[in-house]
Amino acid sequence: MDPKGQRVKLNDGHFIPVLGFGSSEAKEVPKSEALEVTKFAIEVGFRHIDCAYVYQNEEYIGQAIRSKIADGTVKREDIFYTSKLWCTFLRPELVRPALEKSLKNLQLDYVDLYIIHCPLSAKPGEALLPKDQNGKLAADSVDLCHTWEALEMCKEAGLTKSIGVSNFNHKQLERILNKPGLKYKPVCNQVECHPYLNQSKLLDFCKSHDVVLVAFGALGSQRIKKWMNKNHPFLLEDPVLGAIAKKHKQTPALVALRYQIQRGVVVLAKSYNKNRIKENLQVFDFELSPDDMKAIDGLNRNIRYYDLLIGSNHPEYPFTEEY
């Protein structure tokens, strides 16, 4: 099946492919590797590329996209590219310069989606993770509604087609949705979401407001030292997922990805392994039964691998809310 046809309509009329290629690095790999694997992902059929300023590899991702446009594999409009506004740029006057910096690194004229990476505003400056004297995130006091207005201006300037948020709880999202004078609703909320953290309440909330939920960490087991809680079980070793995978002659990873797509979630598949990148596209080749879906729903344990504990004392820390 052609993944290009598998798209969801956003509330601003644009379309997002339901399967995305996640380009943050799971381990310390040379940045240039991002160039090779992104080119490969586009060659095998990925059209949705998810990246961010903080991943520090946009220059290579941009190079990969441009080389695949240059060799005729794709046109610019075939690619859906997401970038993210990092925490140190949430002051309204820093938003457009931050997006322009990403565009310069990418050497692209626009991004398809620009999202607030996280509601935790941090002290502006050179450090990506500025720390206070207690080793916690050095907070900056910014009204997220003002940040949002600056994103709306970026959309109106044609620097991004769509705008959204990431790692927001329902109350933070509601604050934007209920903002007086709102011009554009967030098209999405990108959050950690997998069978051990299925986000069913947040998903229902998002659906009721025509906001697409985008799942990162959908395979639950990327062990990134500085972000991760390593005491949690490996999702892909779960016996229930294993049994369903065996029944469909698929891998547990593909079952976890397929689960999201059937719930109406846009899912990011992150891998720097070429065989797995190719394999992830097989998510369109099978369908889970209602019983399979119910069994996977039953795995929810509210386990959060990416708990952003460095920001746990921040007034906007999102995970004190149930959803």
TrEMBL record:
Residues 19-300 form the NADP-dependent oxidoreductase domain. The record marks K84 as: Lowers pKa of active site Tyr. Keywords: NADP, Oxidoreductase. PROSITE patterns: ALDOKETO_REDUCTASE_1, ALDOKETO_REDUCTASE_2, ALDOKETO_REDUCTASE_3. SUPFAM superfamilies: NAD(P)-linked oxidoreductase. The active site is at Y55. One of its GO terms (molecular function) is oxidoreductase activity. It comes from the Eukaryota. Gene3D superfamilies: NADP-dependent oxidoreductase domain. InterPro entries: AKR, AKR1C, Aldo/ket_reductase_CS, NAD(P)_OxRdtase_dom_sf, NADP_OxRdtase_dom. CDD domains: AKR_AKR1C1-35. Substrate binds at H117. Belongs to the aldo/keto reductase family. PANTHER family: ALDO/KETO REDUCTASE. This is NADP-dependent oxidoreductase domain-containing protein. It comes from Moschus moschiferus (Siberian musk deer).
